[in-house]
Write a structure and sequence with these properties.
Number of strands: 40
Distance between the termini: 81 Å
Helix content: 10-25%
Number of helices: 13
Shape: elongated
Radius of gyration: 36 Å
Structural class: alpha+beta
């Protein structure tokens, strides 16, 4: 029988927590002793918390007999002390604040002695990430200090180990640089650019990256391991030798299908890039699976699975024979129809604005390609930080088709958007442009604008919730500069008066001080367009502009002198565009094309002093040619455009002609390529421009690189192929989320040019896509 329960400290003194401890115990004085109950009591006592932290480091039980039939239960508790300080002896290379962030036992927590050792290991791990491969961390097991709440770590940092050289042995199929390029976090030391600090965790990951690369290229039995790590005498640097056993490179044997009823085996095989007899390639293998899913997805088989539970194709191979067979076991499922479409997350944006961008409609069959197009349309609007389109639970519903009642599988779609926190942006700043000299700018842009949503009160206006939600766009830009002054007021409404027509209006003033004369323009440009289907749009527009040429200096070209004074251009236009682009984010296009053909007529019927016709077909095409191990896209963009202007009775004024150089023909100065008079550009009446640009990630999508080939043909007469120009180069694309306008830096070197062309190797542009 339990005669008494006493709570004592580690040194046997009565504990002030007697009442607290006894309260949570099931064991009671006067009741029979149960060791099972006592064990559960110990757990409850150990889990007692104060301010969210456990109070005890240790809880023990002991007994003393109390004759004739009793026992006294002693609960010995080690009360956690409040941590007063943490000291790091020997610390030199890493800031104390960073060490404190790494550990759990620090003020004002209660000291959990069992965690101090774990914290010491965490400190070692941090040092090793910083290259201190030989670090040792110990904590002083001083009971007196621990009782005072003081923790002391003794640190022997050792040298920071850098990598002098990485060597490869056994790589016969790929060069050292090709293999080394798959090590994303481990690099040799290089002054300024690469520190080359050794990180064991990163190194192990990079060995797997090399192995993953080999396996993706068909070397399924590859082994990648460390052969040696040779340290310098002071342990401060090392040479790593990596041994690669490549093994066989497997080629594709049989490719078979099962479970396919809707598409024949020949139709499926035609979608595959990996054919029998070719070397196996992991990226193409993954792309083939996606191609089959896309094929089924376009015909509403959105639940199609390849392999059991979607596990993928089966691969059969023998280690001693470099041939593998691929078997696609396909569970097609049923065709699914679109039910209701639910919109979520749009606090300000009208539902109709979102629905207008969608290419899926209730009652139709689901098409995964149209779902991606819908997501891409919403992303490129610029109103949302994130867009997700998901397909909800399947249900069977009856439907009347051609007077026959049928049962179909139907599913609702959920469109979830995350609106940007701010739909309006002020930008004030200045800079220097390779094309425009010194400049300053003030810009206000209101995305998702609503001209009809006037503020209800001052609070509505100041909170930014007025003039919002209709998908319109308003931009005001004022940019004074040393050479160029501009004013621009632009308004766009994609759903003009609630219709499918898109309306645009632009008011502008442009003044430029050139070396020999000044040029000023003021006018407006209005447009109206209507989509003919999901990809094609028909548009009309009218450009009205007043032009003033003045302040002549010596050496002004005759074609410029001829236009001295004021003149007016009135020109209606018509255009047809096709846009199938897919956007990873608002700035990065990874697939599709945007093509257009337009005609503009300068005519006295609209007050024009000049009569002409302009033709301007062009296309930009985007293809993802590779997706790397980190899921980042490598993109090829090809561009081609033709610009022609033909006079209808009068000469073409120089300010209506076409120019090249700068952003549209890199390596040449702004307007630096093309016909000249007295050494000054006067424009071409025939221009062909083209470009091939390879765009690849360097640091995610925040920093991307490009390699390009630009070319052009310019001639002073229309419908003539002029003298060729061409350049090659490299560049960078920088994008900062806090400043959502990309910066393009390009270094271009002309290799086809005319002797009087003006060259500019470095070109930079603010704005435009990645």
């Amino acid at each position: 029988i339990v005669r008494a329960i006493e709570v004592i400290s580690q040194i046997g003194e009565p504990s002030p927590l007697q009442e607290v401890v006894v309260t949570v115990m099931v064991t009671r004085v006067g009741q029979p002793l149960s060791r099972a109950v006592i064990n559960e009591d110990l757990k409850r006592i150990y889990n007692l918390e104060q301010h969210g932290q456990k109070q005890f480091d240790n809880v023990e039980v002991s007994y003393r007999l109390a004759p004739p039939d009793g026992v006294i239960v002693y609960i010995r508790v080690l009360l956690r002390k409040k941590i007063e300080a943490v000291q790091f002896w020997g610390r030199k290379q890493i800031d104390e604040a960073k060490l404190l962030e790494t550990i759990t036992q620090k003020p004002p927590r209660l000291l959990a002695r069992s965690q101090v050792g774990a914290d010491a290991r965490a400190i070692e791990a941090l040092y090793k990430k910083e290259g201190h491969q030989f670090v040792q961390v110990r904590y002083k097991e001083n009971l007196e200090l621990l009782e005072q709440g003081i923790i002391i770590y003794e640190i022997e940092e050792g040298p920071q180990v850098t990598i002098d050289e990485i060597r490869f042995v056994g790589n016969t199929s790929y060069t050292d640089s090709e293999v080394g390029g798959k090590m994303f976090r481990t690099h040799e030391a290089f002054p300024v650019l690469e520190s080359g600090v050794f990180n064991e965790e990163a190194y192990v990951e990079d060995l797997e990256n090399i192995a993953r690369f080999y396996r993706s290229e068909g070397f399924l039995g590859v082994v990648v391991e460390t052969e040696s790590m040779a340290y310098s005498d002071d342990k401060g640097s090392m040479i790593i030798t990596i041994h690669i056993v490549e093994g066989y490179r497997y080629r594709v044997g049989l490719v078979t299908f099962a479970g396919n009823r809707y598409f024949s085996a020949d139709e499926l095989a035609a979608r595959l890039s990996l054919k029998a007899g070719e070397s196996f390639n992991g990226a193409r293998f993954q792309a083939d699976q996606q191609a089959l899913r896309d094929l089924y997805g376009r015909d509403a088989f959105i639940d199609v699975q390849i392999g059991e539970g979607g596990s993928g194709p089966q691969i059969a191979f023998e280690l001693d024979q470099p041939v593998l067979d691929i078997h696609y076991d396909i569970a097609e499922g049923q065709q699914v129809y679109v039910g209701r479409i639910h919109i979520e997350g749009n606090k300000y944006t009208r539902d109709r604005v979102i629905r207008h961008a969608l290419q899926i409609y209730p009652g139709e069959k689901f098409n995964l390609n149209r779902i991606e197009a819908s997501r891409s349309n919403l992303i490129r609007s610029g109103f949302y930080d994130d867009v997700k389109i998901t397909i909800e639970k399947r249900v069977e519903r009856t439907r009347v088709v051609n007077n026959v009642t049928v049962t179909v599988v139907e599913s609702d779609a959920k469109v979830a958007v995350k609106e940007k926190e701010s739909f309006g942006q002020f930008s004030v700043g200045g800079g220097v442009s390779s094309d425009r000299g010194l400049l300053g700018f003030f810009s206000f842009t209101r995305e998702n604008f609503d001209l009809s949503d006037w503020p209800k009160d001052w609070e509505d206006l100041l909170a930014g919730t007025a003039f919002l939600g209709a998908g319109q766009r308003l931009n005001l830009t004022v940019a004074p500069g040393s050479e160029v002054n501009t004013f621009n007021l632009d308004f766009r409404d994609p759903y003009f008066l609630g219709t499918e027509y898109a309306f645009g209006s632009n008011l502008f003033i442009f003044e430029r001080e050139r070396d020999e004369y000044d040029e000023g323009r003021a006018g407006t440009d209005v447009s109206l367009s209507k989509p003919l289907n999901e990809e094609v749009t028909l548009g009309i527009g009218l450009r009205l502009v007043s032009v003033d040429i003045s302040s002549f200096e010596a050496g002004v070209p005759p074609d410029v002198v001829k236009e001295k004074g004021s003149s007016f251009v009135g020109a209606p236009r018509i255009s047809l565009t096709k846009d199938t682009r897919r956007f990873q984010n608002m700035l990065l296009v990874y697939e599709g094309l945007d093509a257009s053909v337009g005609a503009e007529l300068g005519t006295a019927a609209f007050g024009s002093d000049f009569n002409f016709i302009k033709l301007s077909p062009g296309v930009n095409h985007y293809t993802t040619i590779y997706v790397d191990e980190l899921g980042q896209r490598h993109i090829l963009k090809s561009s081609f455009s033709i610009s022609l202007i033909q006079e209808l009775g009068d000469d073409i004024p120089f300010f209506e002609r076409f120019y090249a150089g700068g952003a549209n023909l890199r390596g040449f100065d702004h307007r630096g390529a093309g016909p000249q008079q007295l050494g000054e550009p006067v424009g071409a009446e025939s221009r062909i421009l083209g470009s091939f640009e390879y765009n690849y990630p360097i640091l995610g999508d925040q920093l991307r690189g490009v390699s390009f080939l630009d070319y052009g043909f310019l001639d002073k007469d229309a419908f003539q192929i002029g003298d060729p120009r061409a350049s090659i180069g490299v560049g960078l694309r920088l994008f900062f989320p806090q400043f959502p306008v990309p910066i393009a830096l390009d270094l271009g070197v002309p290799f086809l040019r005319e002797s009087d062309d003006d060259i500019q190797i470095l070109n930079f542009t603010l704005g435009g896509g990645l």
